[in-house]
Amino acid sequence: MSAPTPPPAVLVLGGTGTVGSRIVSQLLSSQSAHPTTILVASRNGNGDNNPKSDPNLQNISFDWHDTDTWTNPFSTAAGPVKISAVYLIAPPSLNASSLMTEFIDFARERGVRRFVLQSASSIEAGGPAMGKVHGFLRELGQRGEVEWAVLRPTWFQQNFATQPLHLRGIKEESKIYSATGEGRIPWVSADDIAAVAVRALTDAEPPNTEYLVLGPELLSYDEIAAILSKILGRRIVHVDLAPAELEKRYQDFGMPEDYARMMSAMDTSIKFGAENRTNDAILVMTGAAPRKFGDFAKSVKEVWEQQA
Ligand SMILES: NC(=O)c1ccc[n+]([C@@H]2O[C@H](COP(=O)([O-])OP(=O)(O)OC[C@H]3O[C@@H](n4cnc5c(N)ncnc54)[C@H](OP(=O)(O)O)[C@@H]3O)[C@@H](O)[C@H]2O)c1
C-alpha cells in the first residue's frame, strides 16, 4: 500500500521576521483545524525565532536575490512538495517588485494557487514597490488565474521594540524620534496582522480582496511617549525632527539612502493625516478585538529597561 499523500504545504516567505514568525506559530497551533506542512523561508534557512523541532515545520533557505534558491521550497530533502499557498514579504529594497512578480509566476508554474501579499497601508494597488505586486495579483485574480489577498497593515506596535531607531532611542536616551508632528497612527499588533494572514492563507473560500489592517486606537508619538513613560516609570520624550534630520538619523542606523528618504517622507504624510483612520477589519476577520498599544508595551517592557 502506498503512503498517504501529505496535505499541501503553506510557504511563509520572511517566515522568521516580525509577522512571519507569528504566522508560523499561529499555523502550528491551529494544526487540528488546518493540518499542513509549514515551510519557513529565510536566507540562512535556520528558522531563527521559530520552534526548532516540530514534525509539521520545515526551514527553507530562500533569497529573493538568488533565483537558484527559488526551487528550494518546492523540493526538500523529503522529496517534491505541493504548496497550496504562499505568504509574500518583500526584501528590504525599493526595487523588488519585478523579482516578486517573477516569483509569483515561477510558483504558479509549480501549482501554487493562492498568494497573500504583505504590503502597507500607505501603498495603493498599482502604486510604487509592493503596490505593483498588489496590482499584478489583483489582475491575475480578475482573470481567475490565482486566489489572492493583500494585507495593508499600518505601522506596527512592535517597531518600538525591534527597530534600532526606536529601541535604542528609548533605551539609551529615553527619546522617540519622528517627523510626524501631532499626526496620529492606528498602531497595529503584529499578532493581529498574523491572525488576519492565517485566515487569508487557509480559509476554504478565497479572499480575493485587500485588507487595510488597522489597530484600535489613534495615537500620536507624543501619546505613545506618555504611555511608555507611565509603564517604564521614567520620562520618555518625543522629539519631532525635520524630515532631513530624520532621514540622516535612519542612515546613521545603517539604512540605505533611498529607503531612509522614503521612510522620512512617510512621516510627513502621517503629519498631514494620512494614517488618521481606523476600522474593524481585524475584528471581522479574526473574531477578536485588536490589541492595544499599552498592553503590548507592558508585555515587553523589559526591552526598554536601562542598565544600572
Ligand atoms: N514595520 C512596519 O511598521 C510596517 C508597516 C507596514 C508594512 N510593513 C512592511 O512589512 C514588511 C516587513 O515585515 P516584517 O517586519 O514582518 O519583516 P522583518 O521582521 O523585517 O523580517 C524580514 C524577513 O524577511 C527575510 N528576508 C530579509 N531579506 C531577505 C531576502 N533577500 N530574501 C529572503 N528573505 C529575506 C528575513 O529573514 P533573513 O534576514 O534571515 O533572511 C525575515 O524573515 C516590509 O515589506 C514592510 O514594508 C512594515
UniProtKB/TrEMBL annotation:
InterPro entries reported for this sequence: Ergot_Alk_Oxidoreductase, Ergot_alkaloid_biosynthesis, NAD(P)-bd_dom_sf, NmrA-like
Q: Which UniProt keywords apply?
A: Alkaloid metabolism, Oxidoreductase
Pfam families named in the record: NmrA
Which organism's genome codes for this protein? Chaetomidium leptoderma
Native organism taxonomy: Eukaryota, Fungi, Dikarya, Ascomycota, Pezizomycotina
The protein's matches in PANTHER family, at most eight in alphabetical order, are given as: PRESTALK A DIFFERENTIATION PROTEIN A, PTHR43162
Read off the NCBIfam families from this record: ergot_EASG (TIGR03649)
Q: In which pathway does it act?
A: Alkaloid biosynthesis; ergot alkaloid biosynthesis
GO MF terms held by the record? oxidoreductase activity
- Hey, which family's this protein in? Belongs to the fgaFS/easG family.
Residues annotated as domain NmrA-like:
10-267
Task: Specify the signal sequence span.
Answer: none
**What protein name applies here?**
NmrA-like domain-containing protein
Q: Which GO terms describe its biological process?
A: alkaloid metabolic process
